[in-house]
Request: fold
Amino acid sequence: MAEKCVLAYSGGLDTSVAVKWLMDNYGVEVVTLTVDVGGEIDLQAVKERALATGAVDARILEVKDQFVRYFVFPALQAGAVYEGKYPLATALARPLMAYHLVEVAREVGAGSVAHGCTGKGNDQVRFDVGVRTLEPGLRIIAPAREWGMDRDQEIEYARKHNIPVPLTKASPYSIDENLWGRSIETGVLEDPAKEPPEDAYQWTLSPEKAPDKPQYLNIDFEGGIPTALDHKEMDGVSLIQELNRVVGTHGVGRIDHVENRLVGIKSREVYEAPAAVVLLAAHRALEDMTLSKEQARFKDRVAQEYADLIYNGLWFTAHHQDLHSYVQSTQRHVTGTVRVKLYKGSCQVVGRDSPKSLYSLKEATYGKDDAFDQRAAPGFIDIFSKSARLQAEVQLLDQPEGPLGITGPSE
Ligand code: ARG
Reply:
């Protein structure tokens, strides 16, 4: 019996060609694994296509709940956004896929796993690092890194070998999608000077076409996790799906980013992430109310570290566990309700309320119940300014160019 190889299978052109290519070039029996993380795919059709292409077994795993619970919500709590723009949808799903590839490989006794990633992207790194950390003994095969075919040659290969390729009209883009967002690459998008054409977008209406009336949404959080939409309790998967639908109609969630890939190149990426954009903004607004200044500032630094770690595929590491523990600890009082306003491409937080709010009206008000003792301010400022005043006197005031370099002697 031939050795088995478990292939991460989306059912698209690349991975369909890969089934046959792996059989021919590595002499393996191919078991395909399609992991459902909430992309819009016809799972039954994908399964049939895999078997028709020659796979000995075609597995489908529905892991949306796992994806949300262990990947999406922790990243939301962390405020993880790569380079300030990308909510990391694709990057978050890869380690979960790697995990299940390894599980299935163990179950069927496979000697190798395979994926359809190219040799110049981040996804290959995430798959490979994930698999190599979880099961070092497994061989990893990435056909697209080896075969040197372009898209037309792949189509020709599929035709020659009677590989059924998806009949949907050939997309000019490379697309990856899951609950947390849709990533769109290649084609005309490779020119960063050009505005992405409308056909790149599928989840969001153009802001010009969005309704003329704003829509308000109330989002409840408990411990940093969204639990209800407009006061209706929902599980995480349904809440995200519902938000993607509603928010997308207002043209909110489009992201156009020239990002720094791990492999050293910049690439122009377009994303649609309606739910992510709104949830990240709402979550942040609630943290503004419930975290101290020091917690918020330090957590911002952790968020960056966390985002880089996810982007770079280092999910299964102790560093991740440590960051995760810190983030979880910060979330214990991030509970309350945030009100957002969606209108023609913009998402604004317009209200927030929390039982653990650190906002104190009697301290903040300029009205009659002001509890802030303004007479204490001069003493505070006297001590606060002490070191600045001392330094100015000794080092700055007698500089020929003046304390700021702008009040010195005129020439
Ligand atoms: N640049 C993004 C990332 O590295 C998205 C990659 C999406 N892949 C795709 N085939 N469109 O996470």
About this structure: The first helix runs from residue 13 to 26.
